[in-house]
Design goal:
The complex is a heterodimer of chains A (476) and B (213).
Chain A: H1 2-19, H2 29-33, H3 37-70, H4 76-98, H5 121-126, H6 137-150, H7 181-221, H8 227-246, E1 250-255, E2 266-269, H9 275-281, E3 287-291, H10 295-307, E4 311-313, H11 315-318, H12 321-333, E5 340-342, E6 353-354, E7 368-375, H13 391-399, E8 404-410, H14 422-437, E9 440-441, H15 455-469
Helix pairs in contact in A: 3-8, 7-8, 7-10
Chain B: H1 17-20, H2 27-30, H3 42-55, H4 65-69, H5 72-75, H6 80-85, H7 97-105, H8 112-116, H9 129-140, E1 147-149, H10 150-161, H11 167-181, E2 188-190, H12 191-197, H13 203-206
Antiparallel strand pairs in B: 1-2
Classes of the chains: A alpha/beta (476), B mainly alpha (213).
Domain Phospholipid/glycerol acyltransferase (chain A): 265-376
Subcellular location (chain A): Endoplasmic reticulum membrane
Protein name (chain A): Glycerol-3-phosphate acyltransferase 3
Chain lengths: 476, 213
């Protein structure tokens, strides 16, 4: 072994000697033949590392990248998912056996924690007699107010969904205590697998995916406009999205593929995280709408727009609603262009409910293709809590989860009916998506994440109350 | 689904370890607070603490008026401002977890066992009828002088109806209400008069929030 490495070392240093030209006996040789032990060890190490890296890359290329190009799956992730599901089931059984019944505090996933009396204001206020202001009106309002403080429908939607049973990730460990040694061992094994095996693999894949996307779209962008260019750009987009999805160990089930959004239409979906975009573009190409960013996102955006027309706005242009609507109208008028992808909620919600759809997207006209996306929180929490995590730590959390499992339902296209205004149409589409995805429907604006509620809503309540106490003119 | 809290109310020292490690206005300080111990049950305290942390968006350890105003359903409540004020007695700008629980404790349902085991030497529990009525009284009593004057009544009514009702109509309502309740003719409603005018009202049921198990 020593002679081989010494020989290798000599060989490596022979090359520059030749390059420098014949005759010039560069004094590189003699010192190496008597090189110290540690240099030889380092060379050995480097050679070994090089071998591992190249085998690794070949494996990755063979098993993951090539199949992505053709859209086929080798079944490795299915096997992984089966093992994962069995492990989690076993863990759930152990936890349930191990925890004494009294100390299980039921997590309020979607069940309310207080008993609510949902009767409207009129019934709640009526009390003893007919309608006028009474001192006792304060009871109803204070009760409703304090109920809202203890539990309201909106605030809980901006934090991750609580799990019914632990899925062996530290981050979801809210109430669960030490159960048994075996469970802890499985958890430790899980940590090792996720951080030491899966994480490097996923980071490699993500890196490759993004680089390929930028390079591929730039190259395709050099071609003149033709059907070949469109076909190639689709291929590049799909391949890179598939690679990126595999970098998150994503398992996606698409339902009702016959309703996949067509060209010249608008695709709307509920929004949980930036990964939604990846999930949808793996199964079809869309034209994206959004603001131009700087940095890495900006590079990706500029490269993508060379290959096929996306709609990117400057920050200043976003404020001008007419300009935005005009450009989007132009885009969908051209039937050869890809369908636009829009998330009308405007912000990320935690995938247990659908909040108010902003009416802007529904004023453009054209056919709306609703899509419902529902993640399975047992394998990994996809919700991006932008006030808690920035993009990089969010992606790291994604890559150290078990997997991202979700269902995507394509729904029949909808158009605005006669006599229906944009707000009603938006609500109709929202209900359809909520029912399909099994999510609750809320009339509140997702903007409540950051801002206060609008005064108009308060005025409505005040109006209702005033009508009751003054209403029929019966004030004596 | 409705189960009366059969567990004896405990201090927070008995809660699972995770809660003890929470930073900020935490349970550690609460365990020294004798006032809180009978007020809510252990399980409810845990839930309320989760809720407190969820409302405290910037992880300050206390709640400000802004945090409460961000709750949509509270901001549209006609009495929303007065309810928010009730969390900040004595002009303070912050409410910590004990203060938070103290207000909410007023709305704990009255259990039969509470009245039976009433020790006359101990202070009255926060969810007694009298204390519930006192909470409602304070929603009207803007300057906390123990009396609801006609002027205060007018101001609270204005808060509740916004711009929907004219000044004249509102004055009529305020006058009528104060006259009906005022017994000693001083033009204001004291707490005793307030209690008397509502003696037929089922206060315990109307001002109770039941936390599900």
């Amino acid at each position: 072994m020593g002679e081989v490495s010494a020989g290798l070392g000599a060989l490596l240093l022979e090359l520059p000697r030749d390059c420098l030209g014949t005759g010039t006996a560069v004094a590189l040789g003699p010192p190496l033949r008597t090189s110290p032990e540690w240099v030889r060890r380092v060379m050995e190490g480097a050679e070994l590392a090089g071998k591992i890296l190249s085998t690794w890359l070949t494996l990755v290329l063979g098993f993951i990248l090539l199949p992505s190009v053709f859209g086929v799956s080798l079944g490795i992730s299915e096997i992984y998912m089966k093992i994962l599901v069995k492990t989690l089931e076993w863990a759930t059984i152990r936890i349930e056996k191990g925890t004494p019944k009294e100390s299980i505090l039921k997590n309020s996933a979607s069940v309310g924690i207080i008993q609510r009396d949902e009767s409207p204001m009129e019934k709640g206020l009526s009390g003893l007699r007919g309608r006028d202001f009474e001192l006792s009106d304060v009871f109803y309002f204070s009760k409703k107010g304090l109920e809202a403080i203890v539990e309201d429908e909106v605030t809980q939607r901006f934090s991750s969904e609580e799990l019914v049973s632990w899925n062996l990730l530290t981050r979801t460990n809210v109430n669960f205590q030490y159960i048994s040694l075996r469970l802890t061992m499985v958890w430790v094994l899980g940590v090792i697998v996720r951080y030491c095996v899966l994480l490097p693999l996923r980071v490699t894949l993500a890196f490759i995916g993004i680089s390929l996307l930028v390079i591929g779209t730039t190259l395709v962008g050099q071609l003149p406009d033709s059907s070949l260019k469109n076909w190639l750009s689709e291929l590049v987009h799909l391949t890179c999205c598939r690679i990126c999805v595999r970098s998150l160990s994503g398992t996606i089930h698409y339902h009702n593929k016959q309703y996949r959004p067509q060209k010249g239409g608008i695709c709307v979906a509920n929004h949980t995280s930036p990964i939604d975009v990846l999930i949808l573009t793996t199964d079809g190409c869309y034209a994206m709408v959004g603001q131009v960013h700087g940095g890495l996102m900006g590079i990706i955006q500029r490269a993508m727009v060379k290959a096929c027309p996306h709609v990117w706005f400057e920050r200043s242009e976003m404020k001008d609603r007419h300009l935005v609507t005009k450009r989007l109208k132009e885009h969908i008028a051209d039937k050869k262009k890809l369908p636009i992808l829009i998330f009308p909620e405007g912000t990320c919600i935690n995938n247990t409910s659908v909040m108010m759809f902003k009416k802007g997207s529904f004023e453009i006209g054209g056919t709306i293709h609703p899509v419902a996306i529902k993640y399975n929180p047992q394998f990994g929490d996809a919700f991006w809590n932008s006030s808690k995590y920035n993009m990089v730590s969010y992606l790291l959390r994604m890559m150290t989860s078990w997997a991202i499992v979700c269902d995507v339902w394509y729904m029949p296209p909808m158009t605005r009916e006669e006599g229906e205004d944009a707000v009603q149409f938006a609500n109709r589409v929202k209900s359809a998506i909520a029912i399909q995805g099994g999510l609750t429907e809320l009339p509140w604006d997702g903007g409540l994440k950051r801002a206060k509620v609008k005064d108009t809503l308060k005025e409505e309540q005040q109006k209702n109350y005033s009508k009751m106490i003054v209403g029929n003119g019966s004030v004596s | 689904m409705i189960a009366p809290s059969s567990q004896p109310p405990l201090s927070l020292a008995h809660l699972p370890g995770r809660l003890g490690r929470v930073s900020g206005a935490g349970p550690r300080r609460v365990t020294h607070h004798p006032f809180l111990l009978p007020a809510v049950s252990q399980a409810s305290l845990l839930r309320l603490h989760h809720r407190f942390r969820a409302l405290d968006r910037n992880k300050k350890g206390y709640l400000s008026r802004m945090d409460l105003q961000q709750i949509g359903a509270l901001a549209v409540n006609p009495l929303g401002d007065r309810i928010i004020e009730s969390f900040f007695p004595d002009g303070s700008q912050q409410v910590d977890f004990p203060g938070f629980v103290r207000v909410l404790a007023h709305f704990r349902p009255v259990e039969d066992e509470d009245t039976e085991t009433q020790d006359p030497k101990k202070p009255e529990p926060l969810n007694s009828r009298r204390n519930k009525l006192h909470y409602a009284f304070q929603l009207y009593d803007l300057d906390r002088d123990g009396k609801i004057s006609r002027h205060e009544m007018l101001q609270v009514l204005r808060l509740m109806v916004g711009v929907q009702v004219t000044e004249e109509q509102l004055e009529n309502i305020a006058d009528r209400t104060v006259q009906e309740a005022d017994e000693d003719g001083d033009g204001a409603v004291s707490f005793v008069e307030f209690t008397k005018s509502l003696e037929k009202m089922d206060v315990e049921q109307k001002m109770s929030i039941r936390i599900l198990k």
